[in-house]
Design a protein that fits this description.
Chain lengths: 120, 149
């Protein structure tokens, strides 16, 4: 799924990385807790979060996230935006709540970072 | 025979309580490692370990010096902080154990995952602490792909 499709699906505003909307996203993860993002995030992840301080962008950069979607209408501060521009991390912001944003993406085929073990 | 020749050494200062700058040092370190051309998966693990350690200083200590040392075979991160230290290291190493304040949690940290996550991402991890004085952490990464975790 391209970032452009995600933008349209979530009716999101592009905060940073307008030129990078053709990036292909293959999986996503959501958390407001950066401790957990650092522990469970995987490289290439689309990070959905409602935490809008500069730490969210720094964390995304540290774990090699592909892009960030802020939920609940949140937007990063200027320092976060500057870092995202510098590191080439596109940022979207949607007014949707976390659950709805994740549900929409998942139901359109975007998988997560975790799954239940196969039943045998 | 292992070579001890240092390719790069750099010191960084971290200030406790400075939440706005928290993470800058690790962001800089990641950039340095990228410029040197270290393997991306090692960069990622080093950056995560460094960032967790940096956040611990910001959250709990007064100040710290983080030293990055790179030799042809190894990457070393040594962090020495001045702070309250850790009374019970074994307990601090347990996932979910945390003494974080509400302010720290609002920043998205303090879930009790920091030290276990540093250990998980390091090839070698050492920690020692003197209550009332400070904590010292040593992280070692093997740069030899065949030895990679």
């Amino acid at each position: 799924m391209s970032l452009k499709e995600i933008k349209e699906l979530l009716q999101a505003e592009v905060i940073s990385g307008e030129d990078n909307l053709d990036l292909e996203i293959t999986f996503a993860g959501a958390s407001d807790l950066m401790s957990d993002v650092l522990a469970f995030g995987k490289p290439g992840i689309l990070l959905l979060t409602g935490l809008s301080n500069a730490q969210s962008v720094r964390t995304a950069n540290i774990i090699d996230a592909k892009a960030i979607v802020y939920v609940r209408g949140k937007k990063p501060d200027n320092e976060g935006i500057a870092l995202a521009n510098e590191k080439g991390i596109p940022i979207l912001s949607t007014k949707l709540m976390m659950y709805t944003a994740c549900g929409l993406l998942f139901s359109h085929g975007l998988s997560g970072v975790s799954s239940l073990p196969d039943k045998k | 025979m292992m070579s001890d020749e240092v390719v790069l050494t750099q010191k960084f200062e971290i200030t406790g309580g400075d939440f706005n700058k928290a993470g800058r040092v690790s962001t800089d370190i990641k950039e340095i490692l990228q410029e040197i051309g270290i393997d991306p998966s090692i960069i990622r693990r080093t950056s995560i370990a460094s960032y967790e350690a940096e956040m611990n200083v910001v959250m709990y200590a007064q100040r710290a010096v983080l030293t990055l040392n790179i030799t042809p075979e190894k990457l070393h991160l040594e962090l020495e902080d001045e702070g309250p230290g850790i009374e019970n290291i074994e307990r601090a190493m347990q996932e979910g154990y945390s003494t974080a304040t509400d302010e720290m949690r609002e920043m998205g940290f303090g879930a009790g995952m920091g030290l276990p996550n540093i250990k998980k991402n390091s090839d070698k991890f050492e920690i020692s602490s003197t209550p009332g004085k400070g904590t010292s952490i040593k992280i070692t990464m093997s740069l030899d792909q065949t030895e990679k975790k």
